[in-house]
Amino acid sequence: MLRWTDLSQIPQGYGPSVATLGNFDGVHKGHRAVLSTVVQRARSEGAHAVAVTFDPHPVAVLHPERAPQIITSPDQRLELLASTGLDAVLVMEFTHEFAQLTPERFVVDVFVKALGASVVVVGQDTRFGVRNSGDVDTLRRLGVEHRFEVLALADIGNGGRWSSSRVRGLVIDGDVAAAAKILGRPHQVSGEVVHGDHRGRELGYPTANLSQESAGLIPADGVYVGRLIRPKLPDRDLDRALPAAISIGTNPTFEGTQRRVEAHVLDRSDLDLYGETVIVEFMERLRATEKFDSIEELLLQIADDVQRARAVFSSTLT
């Protein structure tokens, strides 16, 4: 998949293309429905399938006090977009100057001149241009003027509209199982494995501690069941995706202050993951974080957490 960050990088005469527009944070099932339509239509017409998106999130620029926590980092988002079969993604830098573009100027510069769009696929609630003054009707009017078709898809979703804001709220609340139903996959956080206090190893439950610079929205404090994925290993390697019990929090029993993501790979103590970038995948929340009065109480609870995590994996295999 080609990745552009400026209109000047798009080859002259790149079209025809079937294009879409959005933030695509999380690349959830609603996004994928739009992107699937883009790819299918492009294939049927012998055109390029292209998504146009922004970085940073427009709200973070225009109203930083209301900026949403981002579900997926820019790199994660691009990887997810690539997995849909797109031919190219244009990531436009969102600035105050960019925000002043009229809907007409945006459409002509991006869809008409740069991408040579023959079809533009959007959701019914799409807004663009200065003060979000452009909508689907604006796009249809411009489509007639510049000879491209506009395909507006109705909102979809079971039990409510699939949206990034819904996913964001569920992850922040720790309901990763419900978030996965909208995402179409488990929520993930990725980062480099770094040295911690080595307390888990001393207790008999070694953990992979993710760097504070990890990518992806971190769920609510608590204990989760999921997987530790080593993306650099081949897909068929048995050590690539490992069942894990995952702790998020400050380790209150030990008066910790730094919030951490720690993954204990079930029934493995032979792994050396330091310096390796891994993905932690969340399947289900087991419990909230607790402060225990003694190490003995903590160990009993960890043993129960690990046993429950094993049971979750056993149930998925039957």
In short:
The chain is of the alpha/beta class. 31% of the residues lie in helices and 25% in strands.
Provide an overview of this structure.
It is a single chain. The protein has nine helices and twelve strands. The chain has 318 residues and is of the alpha/beta class. The protein has helices at 29-45, 58-62, 74-82, 103-114, 136-146, 164-173, 176-183, 199-203, 295-316; strands spanning 2-4, 17-21, 48-55, 88-93, 117-123, 149-153, 187-194, 208-210, 222-229, 241-249, 260-265, 277-287. Helix 4 packs across helix 5 and helix 6 packs antiparallel against helix 7. It is elongated. Helices cover 31% and strands 25% of the residues. The model has no long low-confidence stretch (mean pLDDT 94). The longest helix has 22 residues, at 295-316. It starts with a strand and ends with a helix.
First-to-last CA distance: 37 Å
H/I helix tally: 9
Outline, from the CA principal axes? elongated
Which regions have little confidence, pLDDT < 50, spanning 5+ residues? none
The major pleated sheet works out as: 6 strands, parallel
Strand and helix layout:
Layout: E1 2-4, E2 17-21, H1 29-45, E3 48-55, H2 58-62, H3 74-82, E4 88-93, H4 103-114, E5 117-123, H5 136-146, E6 149-153, H6 164-173, H7 176-183, E7 187-194, H8 199-203, E8 208-210, E9 222-229, E10 241-249, E11 260-265, E12 277-287, H9 295-316
Parallel strand pairs: 1-4, 2-3, 2-5, 3-4, 5-6
Antiparallel strand pairs: 7-8, 7-12, 8-11, 9-10, 9-12, 10-11
